[in-house]
Amino acid sequence: MQEGQFKMRSTPRTTALAATVGLVLAAACFDSPVLAQQPIKFSLDWKFEGPAAPFTVAIDKGFFKAEGLDVTIDTAPGSLEPLNRVAPGTYDMGIGDINSLIKFRDANPGAPIRAVFMFYNKPAFSVVARKSLGVTKPKDLEGKKLGAPAADGAYAQWPIFVEANGIDASKVTIENIGFPVREPMLQKGEVAAICGFSFSSFINLKSMGVPADDIVVMLMADYGVNLYGNAVFVNPRFAADKPEAVKRFLRALVKGMKETVSTPETAVDSVLRRNDVVTKPVELERLRMAIKDNILTAEVKADGYGGVNMDRLAKAIDQIALTYQFKNGKPKPADIFDVSFLPPAAERKAN
Amino acid sequence: MTRGELQVRLAPWLYTAVLLLVWEAAVRLFGIPVFFLPPPTVIAQAFVDFWGPIYRNSLFTLSTTLIGFGMAVGFGLLLGLMVGWSRSIYAGVYPMMIGFNAIPKVAVVPILVLWFGIGFIPAVLTAFLISFFPIVVNVATGLATMEPELEDVLKALGASKLDIMRKVGIPRTLPYFFGSLKVAITLAFVGSVISESIASNNGIGNLMLQAQAQFKVPLIFAGLVALAVEGIVMYWLMAILESSTTGWAQRSGFART
């Protein structure tokens, strides 16, 4: 390998030199596997905020490194974007909305990207409204303006929310507003409700001075939307070429999850280190809310981190099919979620 | 028409055709997936399939862009003349303008949205904000580079400052002014699309966001192509305007062959 890169005239001397260098390098590699770290480019689903702690803490505590992985983590604007990054292999792995992954697979049959680890067992997708603007339940949205970023994971489930709650969608005005203006527009009362992740929108509104008892968080999962949430997924080529790296990544991630759930107040520091504009109390509250509502559910307490119940996933796909026309037939749960990379159940047990 | 002229006339079409051919061939040869880079034929199909929304949103973007651009032309011309007229106005206004121009407009849009709501107005204002600067600078430069000898002669002949401005200063500035319009119109498109992609229910920026959310990558590219076409047409109109009004200023034959 090393020799091939020398493009000089091959005098006996240079050849010998090159061979020696190559041998030394090779020997060094075999002796200490730490040198041969497998790089992994990972795309988050959002900014460096509280709920990203399991990933960042796994870097800072050396969990990935101990598995021989050199993981770099980048942020993303929303839970749909990581799919566009991981599918072509720009990123090896990422986290994003599994329901959008199901639709992405249907729209792009040539990219068999699969989920391998369920992060938000109960999705954080919600409609967040304000009592003072006259919205306390789904039906109240009729005749009102709903602010929704196009690339938002919560808005992606809006059709199911509409269906499950008997809302007349033609009476709801959807305003396409980007993430930077979503909460400010609800704060100003220009829209009566927004689509967003519960822990994003609720905490943002609260820290902008909206009284907590004025904020109504309708967690879609509590209103008949029976889906899974954001999951870690892998580029298909990477999964085929480096299955061991994927397994080791998930092993380290489980350690990061355990660390974060048991000591959120220190784990959140690894997020703050990467984001100068957030404050610890806010991010800690956000993280605690995500752990309580979305990560540490009854199912996770029983079955451990990361796995899915295939029956529940099958039902989720059925529900997606109510409002989404599958062009290539309804997918099988096992084709969406690949369990083969998960660590053994004993290792994944929730603390 | 001579052979050379024909070559010049055909060149844009030929070069574009070659680009499209290489693009199509590369995508097919290397098996690049559609969601990474769709080939031109697939983008053309997206144009056919989504002609209605593309047409409607293009018109919206075109209207916000042109209104913002119109404001920029009026304001830029006026401010440029003022800045060129008086050294103290120049000294007072310039630092502010440079600072203002340095602000990334993508950071201004959320503020505009909070002030004016979403959609039309912030898109017009962003187009205006992003495109007026080159006009001001060019007009001011045109005035600043007026030959002092000419000014002295006119003064000696009894011309007032206003006379000099009207008869020599402004005509002399026109080539700079029309040149800057070509830069400003393309910037104006950037501005309105930035705003549309942050907060709007209409426009190409919004169309591309929706397409992205539904993983319709060919439609995203179709939106880009629509923008490029609009940009080229408007640039071309500005170029015609330039050569028909200030053709007298272009005498060099440097690039003619």
Q: Secondary-structure blueprint of this entry?
A:
The complex is a heterodimer of chains A (351) and B (257).
Chain A (H helix, E strand, L loop, with lengths): L11 H20 L6 E6 L9 H8 L2 H4 L2 E6 L6 H6 L6 E5 H10 L6 E5 L6 E6 L14 E4 L4 H4 L1 H8 L7 E4 L2 H10 L4 E5 H10 L7 E5 L10 E5 L1 H6 L1 H20 L1 H4 L1 H4 L7 H16 L2 H6 L6 H14 L9 H4 L8 H4 L3
Helix pairs in contact in A: 2-11, 9-14
Chain B lengths: L2 H27 L10 H10 L1 H35 L1 H16 L2 H12 L3 H25 L3 H9 L4 H38 L5 H10 L3 H30 L11
Helix pairs in contact in B: 2-10, 3-4, 3-6, 3-8, 3-9, 5-6, 5-8, 6-8, 8-9, 8-10, 9-10
Which terms summarize this structure?
heterodimer; A: 351 residues; alpha/beta; D-Maltodextrin-Binding Protein, domain 2; 2 domains; five-stranded mixed sheet; 18 helices; 45% helix; globular; disordered N terminus; B: 257 residues; mainly alpha; MetI-like fold; 10 helices; 82% helix
Task: Describe it.
The complex is a heterodimer of chains A (351) and B (257). Chain A has 351 residues and is α/β, with parallel strands linked by helices. Chain A folds into 2 domains: 34-122 and 228-348, Periplasmic binding protein-like II (D-Maltodextrin-Binding Protein, domain 2, 3-Layer(aba) Sandwich); 125-222, Periplasmic binding protein-like II (D-Maltodextrin-Binding Protein, domain 2, 3-Layer(aba) Sandwich). Helices cover 45% and strands 15% of the residues of chain A. Chain A contains 18 helices and 10 strands. Chain A has helices spanning 12-31, 53-60, 63-66, 81-86, 98-107, 153-156, 158-165, 179-188, 198-207, 236-241, 243-262, 264-267, 269-272, 280-295, 298-303, 310-323, 333-336, 345-348, and strands at residues 38-43, 69-74, 93-97, 114-118, 125-130, 145-148, 173-176, 193-197, 215-219, 230-234. In chain A, the strands form 2 sheets. In chain A, strands 2-1-3-10-4 form a 5-stranded mixed beta sheet. The model of chain A is unreliable at 1-10 and 27-34 (pLDDT under 50). Chain B is flat. The mean pLDDT of chain B is 90. In chain B, helix 3 (51-85) runs parallel beside helix 6 and helix 5 crosses helix 6 (120-144). Chain B is built from 10 helices and no strands. By secondary structure, chain B is mainly α. Chain B has helices at residues 3-29, 40-49, 51-85, 87-102, 105-116, 120-144, 148-156, 161-198, 204-213, 217-246. Chain B has 2 domains: 1-32; 38-246, MetI-like (MetI-like fold, Orthogonal Bundle). The chains are: A alpha/beta (351), B mainly alpha (257). Chain A binds chain B through residues 80-81, 83-84, 87-88, 103-104, 107-108, 110-111, 150-151, 155-156, 174-178, 180-181, 184-185, 188, 190, and chain B through 33-36, 109-110, 113-114, 117-118, 197-201, 206, 209-210, 212-217.
